[in-house]
Design brief:
Layout (H helix, E strand, L loop, with lengths): L16 H11 L1 H21 L10 H12 L3 H14 L2 H15 L15 H38 L4 E6 L2 E7 H20 L4 E2 L9 H6 L5 H11 L3 E2 L10 H30 L2 E3 L18 H24 L9 H6 L2 H19 L2 E3 L1 H9 L6 H13 L8 H9 L6 H9 L5 H9 L9 H4 L4
Parallel strand pairs: 3-4
Antiparallel strand pairs: 1-2, 5-6
Length: about 450
């Protein structure tokens, strides 16, 4: 058997690439290298702007040409770095050599020795990861989460008055509305999204073991702490002043735990939507030309929600591994974080794919109110809660001599269906005030939804 031509090993780079391709601009190896070049170039500019070591400031025209090294980073740079890394066996060193090579080409060889000046690889990497992860989350992942949340809010508003039998423990329970139940997910996701929006993205820039030792050896009269802080903050990321050789990654742990939390909520949404579809509460809208089953032509399978569920489980597992691994580094440095962080894009990619599945799935369902109405009409016994609560209020008010209202309703309703006429007859025979009787007789399972509709207004 002949070997296949080179193929993507991950489905994110093959079958599902269209849904996650925006992430590759930031979290691929090329995206990371582009950010590394950005950090190297901006550090060089920062040093020359201060005329350190007698270097003259770079002209605005030359700054623009330098910045083009990362703003126009493309296949030529990707290929150059691949060839150089095959020799250096060190990715950040290859980036340094790329910048030095381009400086010579631009006629700026006089400042080449300020490339990667006093830096350890982690200074470049921690800053590059802060940049790429922040951009991937804020520009790609978070907007997708917000789009799904907005869709849920719209569905909640559309179905706020759609009464539905609740199912606690899988059993008929106090009615609610479909809009309120969807609104629960929207509210949960909004809360976690706000936490993610407030995330920190931190970098260190303090040398080999976080002491600025080489910096001071080269120039003891410079306030290197202030200079590097200003540099990092100029890149719109936060500064971590107290580290070992590596930035401690706590911000990443916090972020990935929050993203995983959002994934858990989305997983709950996917399984609930799947269940509502299986109960007939939602009908799936046929997609022209689509095949539901290879052998059963009548079927429309809830594949969007099933795929979302599976991708969230993969993402959640990877995010948990990232958080567990990145929180620890032996003594001043080990390399367990290096290969681990290369999977950030995979973890966020499966989460983004799940969001895409959910967005598409939510757009392909319609509420079957007639099914909800039939379920409600078949379960009048759920009004037992309302009746026993009203009786308790009547006892407290001195308008009833009933001694155990819960037991009374339990005997009537537990484990058996009770219809509307039976409940009405039961209410008429209760020892309670006439106003209370009137309120209970006016209730139906479809109207016993409390504040469900109003609650949706808080989204």
């Amino acid at each position: 058997m002949t070997s296949l031509p080179p193929q993507p090993l991950s489905p994110l780079d093959g079958r599902y690439f269209a849904a996650v391709s925006e992430l590759s601009d930031y979290l691929s190896e090329a995206g990371l290298n582009r950010a590394r070049v950005e950090v190297e170039v901006e550090w060089l500019i920062a040093l020359t702007d201060r005329s350190l070591f007698g270097a003259s400031p770079v002209s605005e025209a030359d700054k623009a040409r330098l910045r083009a090294l990362y703003t126009e980073f493309g296949q030529a740079e990707i290929d150059w770095l691949a060839k150089r890394e095959a020799i250096t066996r060190h990715d950040v060193k290859a980036v340094e050599y790329l910048v030095r090579d381009r400086l010579e080409q631009l006629g700026l060889g006089a400042v080449a020795e300020l490339t990667h000046f006093a830096c350890t690889s982690e200074d470049i990497n921690s800053t590059a990861y802060a940049l790429t992860v922040k951009r991937a989350v804020t520009r790609v992942w978070l907007p997708k989460l917000q789009a799904v949340t907005q869709m849920l809010s719209a569905l909640a508003a559309a179905h706020r008055d759609a009464p539905m039998l609740a199912h606690t423990h899988g059993q008929p329970a106090t009615p609610t509305t479909m809009g309120k139940e969807i609104g629960v997910f929207a509210w949960r996701l909004q809360r976690v999204a706000r936490q993610i929006e407030g995330s920190e993205y931190l970098a260190k820039f303090s040398g080999a073991t976080g002491t600025w030792g080489a910096h001071l050896a080269a120039e003891p009269d410079v306030d290197w702490l202030a200079l590097t802080r200003a540099f990092i903050e100029s890149l719109d990321v936060g500064f971590n002043p107290l580290t070992t050789q590596i930035e401690s990654h706590d911000w990443q742990v916090e972020l990935y735990d929050r993203v995983r939390h959002a994934g858990g909520i989305l997983h709950n949404l996917a399984t609930d939507m799947w269940t509502y579809i299986s109960m007939g509460y939602f009908a799936q809208i046929p997609v022209a030309g689509a095949t539901g089953s290879s052998t059963m032509p009548h079927k429309i399978n809830p594949i969007r929600f099933e795929n979302a569920e599976a991708n969230l489980e993969i993402s959640g597992g990877l995010l948990a591994t990232l958080a567990q691994t990145l929180v620890t580094s032996r003594l001043q440095r080990d390399l367990t974080d290096s290969t681990t962080q290369r999977n950030i894009g995979v973890a966020l990619g499966h989460s983004l794919l799940a969001l895409d599945n959910l967005q598409r799935g939510l757009g392909e369902v319609s509420l079957a109110q007639e099914v909800l109405d039939a379920d409600l009409d078949a379960n009048w016994e759920v009004l037992g809660e309302a009746i026993q609560t009203v009786v308790r209020a009547e006892i407290t008010a001195g308008r009833s001599q009933i001694t155990d209202p819960y037991a009374l309703l339990k005997e009537l309703t537990r484990g058996r269906r009770v219809g509307g006429p039976e409940l009405a007859a039961f209410v008429r025979g209760l020892d309670i005030g006439e106003a209370a009787k009137a309120r209970l007789l006016a209730l139906t399972p479809a109207t016993y939804v409390g504040l469900a509709s109003a609650l949706v207004g808080d989204l």
